[in-house]
Amino acid sequence: MSNPLLTPTDLPAFSKIEPQYIEPAIKQLIEENRATVEHLLKQPHFTWENFILPLAEAGDRLSKVWSPISHLNSVKNSPELREAYQACLPLLAEYGTWVGQHQGLYEAYLQLKNSPEFANYSQAQKRPLKIVYVISNYPVFPCRRKNKNAMAKSWRVYPNSPPNSAITC
What we know:
This is Oligopeptidase A. With 169 residues, the protein is mainly alpha-helical. It contains six helices and no strands. It has helices at residues 19-40, 48-75, 79-100, 103-113, 123-136, 148-157.
């Protein structure tokens, strides 16, 4: 039987979500998202269409799978569901740390912000790129090598943080 969490739907299929499907789905999506990031970073030139949109779509897919799981854990908790949910928290935390510390993503965002195309972007498109630029100047910015361990530790301490979409890096 195929994993219903990996079948795209407009609305979550809560009645089909079983604990045995949760961890395999999250592992698969994290693996796919990592591959997407690495593939997109091989491009010689980044644009909104060839970089930001695919990253956002990958992050959205992970969020659309994790959100109903998290919701079920809150409203229909069972020992099996709790075990599957808890097994995924470190996976999501590690993935979020990886995204947040990815030097290549940081450099790609800055390249986009400093590109001639940036002037033609809408305010909604400029906003995430400006945010990356602003936070990159904070002393605790995770892409600064000396602070990577602190960020990794914070993800372990606060594992219920959202799994992060690469666009929020």
